[in-house]
Amino acid sequence: IYMEWWQLFLFSFGLAFFGVFVAVPLRKQTIIREKLPFPSGTATAHMIKVLHTQNNKVVDYEEARVLKVKWELLAITFAFSSLYAIIGYFIPIIRNIPIFTYMGWPQATLYGWVITPSLSYVGQGMIMGTRIGLSMLAGALFGWGFLAPMSKIVGWAPGNIGSHENGATGWVMWVSLAIMIAEAFSSLGCIIVLTIIRLIKTNKYHKKTDFDDSDDGIPELHLVPRKWWTSGLAVSVVLCALVSWLLFMEYINFWDPIVATILALFVSILGVRALGETDLNPVSGVGKVTQLVFAIVSPFNILSNLVAGAIAEAGAQQAGDMMQDLKTGHLLHASPRAQFYAQMIGSAFSAIFAVGAFKLYTYAWPVPSEQFQVPTAYVWLQMARVVNGTNLAPNVIWFCLGCGLISIILPILSTIHPKYTPWIPSGIAFAIAMYVTPNWTIPRVVGALVHHFWFKYAPKEHNNYMIVVASGFVLGEGILSVVTAILKTAGVPTL
Q: H helices of 129-255, where?
């Protein structure tokens, strides 16, 4: 199905708002009453306090020096990352250096074992941390050092290595998908059980009047009125369902987007609670749960399955982002109504910028391609095919079952023994490194190792500067990628 720009905009616009309205009434319960931590929102509040120290406060010499160094490091890392993006455009070979071919082992290059010295990926690895980075390294070794070559050698994946239909890439993706599905459902199950236990304990040991039901002294003028979010939620749900049906009416039943939107409201609440307690929004699991439900609601309809999953994930993502912002605002005594305005404006413009970016990149480069593999899109498609009865790749079922079983156990172990979580591999990170080629994983592992050794040998400097350095790396290449896309569209030649 090909969608024109205006169709993409309508779909994006239709999905952009109902998650915001879902979050508004959850603020009092999750932030004011239960005081869930929302770690990223809390960290953002502390960072804002540091960067915007009031003039009438005395700042000692050390604080001033650290702040100055932070800005210098941000500028330097941004510049280096931007420079790599520009040089990488004009000299493409540095984006994928076939180091193993130079060492006389060209077979490794065929399976993606090349070096991509992306500072943006290094920065992402620094933010991910050691556990995620090493889990990805293990996934890359298992997927692309063992499973992919094995499936090719024994004839289970006879096609081109990069083929998603009958090649090693497609064969490994089934195992990766099994791991992600298993961990997603296991994690959701653990979250539900913990939530029920916490609510039971809360009701048992606290009377209703024990709750702090105030809004920390915030005047009514700065709160979002109930009639705003109730009417807005109703309108946004209707908008989402109507737009989805009008765009895909030839392929889906009229009740499919209605059911998907209603289901999305409930899974968004689950996502918000998980985000508040763990700082992880299980949008992947939310989407897959919805896809599984729609295998029953609308069987053998892959497009309906994909649309339903997209609606659920969009709602959970929007609600989670809004709650993180509200937590930050709560700690800074900001106006929830002003934040609501800002989120609504941002959501509206996000539809414009998302479509513009999509059109720009797909015009400049073929998608999917070696540079833009869009692995998540293949995962969604394969999930839709699985729940609708598509046959698996030859002999992959036993690997899926074995890896899936192990992946179910991992979140349970983390829930029972949270202090050992840093030593328990992340199944999702492991699986991600299996469905992207190793050149995407290697620089992230390097970043994770930088994070580990920096913290080990210079913890004070790590706490002060690590996130700033990582942010500069990520922002530089990310922003300049728009420039390189424009250069590509304009036909500026490369070497």
A: 130-142, 148-153, 168-205, 226-248
